[in-house]
Write a structure and sequence with these properties.
Distance between the termini: 49 Å
Low-confidence stretches: 72-92
Helix content: 40-55%
Number of strands: 5
Mean pLDDT: 86
Oligomer: single chain
Structural class: mainly alpha
Strand content: 5-15%
Number of helices: 9
Order of helices and strands: HHEEEHEHHEHHHH
Shape: globular
Length: about 230
Amino acid sequence: MELPLYLNFKDFESHYYDNLEKWFEEYHNTSEIDYLKALVALYSPYLYYNFAEDKLQADAFIEVKDCFFPYHERIGISFCNHYNKESASQKGLNQVFEFKNISMMEYAQHILDKINKYCSKNRNALDGSKNIQDYINDYDIVTSVEGVGYCISYNRHQKVLPFLKAYLPYYGQVVNMMLYRDFIFSVVDIAEYIDQKLKTMKAFEHSIYRHSRADAQFKVQMSRQFLTLCN
C-alpha cells in the first residue's frame, strides 16, 4: 500500500485512522506498529535531530548534481586561422559537477519545469485525463539534461515521489510557496504525533526521534574519525 504524504498536520491527523483501516484491509497479518513504522520511513527524510535543543527539526533538502562547464567566463566567440578539428575534439569542453543541497520546493519547481518543457514540445501531452502528475516519474523527463543545470539521480528521485505527488499541481507553471511553508511548519508536529503513538505502544525504539538521533550521532562519529585521520 502506498501511503499518502500530507503537507499539513490537520490533514494528516484527520486521515490517520482512515489510512490505518485501509492498511489493515490490505495487510491482514499486521499491526498498528507496522503502520507507524511505514509512516516513520515516509516522513523521516524531511527531518533531522538538533543536538543543541535535543529535538527534531524540519530538514526538507535533497542532494543534486549541479553540472557546469569550468571557466565558463573565458568562453566566447573567437576566430582561429589555424583550426584543427582533431586537436579541438581532444581539448573540448569537459562538463564537471559538484554536489549541492537544494530545498524540496526548489527541487519540485525544477521537476515541474522539466515536465512543462516536455508538454510544450508535445501538444497532446495533457490531452484527455492526462496532467502533470502523470509525468512525475517519467525517466526520460526526470533525467533529461540540456547543457548545464541540475543532474537528477533517478534512484534518489524515487525516495521523494510521495512529496512530489502531494505538492506538485495537476496543471500550472509554478509551485505553491504557501503550501510548502505549511509543510515545513507541520512536519515536526506530524513526527511528534507518530512518535507519541509509538511511545504509547511501547515501541519508541522505532520512532523518528530515535532514528534521526542515531543517524546524527553516526554522522558526528564519522566526521570525528575523518578529522583524526587527517591529523
